[in-house]
Amino acid sequence: MGHHKTLLHIHMPPQPPQILAIDDEPRLLSSLKQLLALNGYVVTTAGDGQSAIAQLRTNNYDIALIDLKMPDIDGREIMRYVTEQNIHTDIIVISGEASFETAVDALRLGAHDFLLKPYAPEQLIKRIENTLERRRLKTESTDIQERLKHSEKLHRFLVNTSPDIIYVLNEEGNFTFLNPRVQQLLGFSREELIGKHYTSLVHEEDLELARYAFNERRTGTRATRNLELRLRTKDDHRGTHKSFATSAMCIELNATGLYSNAGKSAGDERRLLGTYGVARDISGRKQAEAIIRYQAYHDLLTGLPNRTLFKDRLNMVIAQAKRVGQMVAVMFIDLDRFKIVNDTLGHIIGDQLLRAVGRRVQTCLREGDTLARLGGDEFVVLLPQVTHRDAAATVCRKIIDSLAPPFMIDQHELFVGASIGVSVFPTDGATDEELIKNADIAMYSVKNDTRGGYAFYSSNMNSQFSQHLDLEMGLRRALTNHEFVIHYQPQYDTQGLHVCGIEALLRWQHPERGLLYPGDFIHLAEEVGLIGQVTEWILDTSIRQMKAWVDEGIAPPRIAINLSTLDLKRSNLVDEIIDSLDRHGLPGQNLELEITENLIVQDINMATQRLNALARHGISIAIDDFGTGYSSLSYLHQLPIHTLKIDRSFVQDIDPESTGRSVVDAIIAMGHSLDLTIVAEGVETQEQHAWLAQRECHGMQGYLFNRPMPAEELQSILKTSRPATHSMIAAPAGEE
């Protein structure tokens, strides 16, 4: 229990001194051992020089008591051995030779003390105690020197390898010391700066800030802490460090005064020696802060101002306009057809397109105008100091014209347009929020009416915009509330006697507005990204109903389902259709998909891939509204087309005085030559029916026969009208 233990050290009691007594007189050696043992010393004896050297070689002793005269190896040779072998044992010579020369010779050979025989015991003990004390003091002094040397070495290492600039100024403010880091960071060698005034290194704009700080004289809590300022860099050193894009580097300074002493008493006067300072490179932190500030106010994709910065600038411009009585215009730009590009070619191409659009629009603006991106494909423009509304209209036309030429993005030729809404301060709003909101409303009115162009805000647009928002919210609820329904319109053979097909037509049973047709909401479904879910519901519902009619034995050969512009671009479309057919057990031969010509020509390679994959499962492909788009014999040969549907506009134009007959004649003739099924839409009169039958049009649908109707009503018609078989209508190309 006498030991005190800590985590780092175990303090042991001091060991008694080790003494080696050497004398060739056994009786004297024995009494010497007893004397020293009584005084607490551990004594080892040696009766001759040979055994003494052996003991010194193998053991450590604090003191050796040596008699000079011994028969074999005398005391002088033992002392020479101790010196030659660098043995750290202090020697006291005990000799009967009383001459002065003997004592001097012993001390010269390394003895620490000389005691003449005979001696009093107290004399010997005193000499041993004095020698041990000198030994202790010497050991402590050596230890202190070693620690000082190590501390100086460590301090020199820390200073020379510090990532910071460490400097010392004299009382005049001139550099007396700089560590090597100054050359690495600033490009100046230490030799160039030693003796120079600190102001030669401080950036000229920060000289006042550095005064009394860089050459700090205060100490303690009043000394300079974490002061940010800039230091000059050497011109030929610029570019070797990330901060040298300019001729200054940002640093954080800590400095304190240096004094000759701390003042041991109240009367002592401290003398100023200079300043000790540490300058830390914070250019990396400053750069990170600049990036954070930039990201807070800019769109990271395009580099344009974001909503926050746009509103800040708009508020400043509004405040200025109020003082001088000027107008301010805010333009809300929404890109047309961008969603198609983004969904078809992916976000990487879409992002590149947004950046290219931003660059084009920027060329249409003045230096003081602001173009910002709010997100997605929405941009806003701020036009300060507008003298009249025509000036804003001119900018709108310039933007629309600039977007008209195609964009070449990654070998894709892409077309986008713009719908632009404009609001003007102060007539259309007094705050930033009002101006942006009303410009947005004006943009939506353009999108709903013409899809492309521009319009200035007017108060009557509010109701239209409100209806648009209500419709969007209702559309999102329609799927979950089961508000969509399918109406079916039968297709009849040439004679009008047999049902040869059915077209599934989507309707929305709106809880407030009643029955809505696709033209009222399909574009909105595409715009808000719901078209995929809507198409999936149409496919599942129509295929399930067709399978029920097949099981009853009343089904016609095929049911036709329309695909929207965005449907064919969805990568999972084929799997979605096949999964639905498999889930309900309906063969692919019972399904026909209707697409428009415009959809095909947007990306013929993608259309070929998708349609061939569907055709391999027996699914037929029909071209809807044929003749109204980019009709081309090349894609009719290239794609697995089964049916051409003549648009109702041509059918309604059939009369003896009209040129519509020649168009329909040409379509029917082309279909016959390509072995395609021809179906006429919108047949409403007996004359149209008779004329089409005469031209051997294979199928017809329209109000002459039936309007689109719920499944229950069509079911009764199918039961009373014998459905046509596959042989009653023309077979698809390539089929028997």
UniProtKB/TrEMBL annotation:
Domain annotation EAL: ranges: 468-722
InterPro entries: Biofilm_reg_signaling, CheY-like_superfamily, EAL_dom, EAL_sf, GGDEF_dom, Nucleotide_cyclase, PAS, PAS-like_dom_sf
Gene Ontology molecular function: cyclic-guanylate-specific phosphodiesterase activity
Annotated EC: 3.1.4.52
Co-factor requirement: Mg(2+)
Catalytic activity as recorded in UniProt: 3',3'-c-di-GMP + H2O = 5'-phosphoguanylyl(3'->5')guanosine + H(+)
Record domain Response regulatory: where: 18-132
Keywords: c-di-GMP, Phosphoprotein
Residue span(s) of domain GGDEF: 326-459
Biological processes annotated in GO: cellular response to nitric oxide; phosphorelay signal transduction system; regulation of DNA-templated transcription
Keyword Phosphoprotein: yes
Every PAS domain range: 151-208
Modification 4-aspartylphosphate occurs at: 67
SUPFAM superfamilies named in the record: CheY-like, EAL domain-like, Nucleotide cyclase, PYP-like sensor domain (PAS domain)
Protein name stated in the entry: cyclic-guanylate-specific phosphodiesterase
Originating species: Acidihalobacter aeolianus
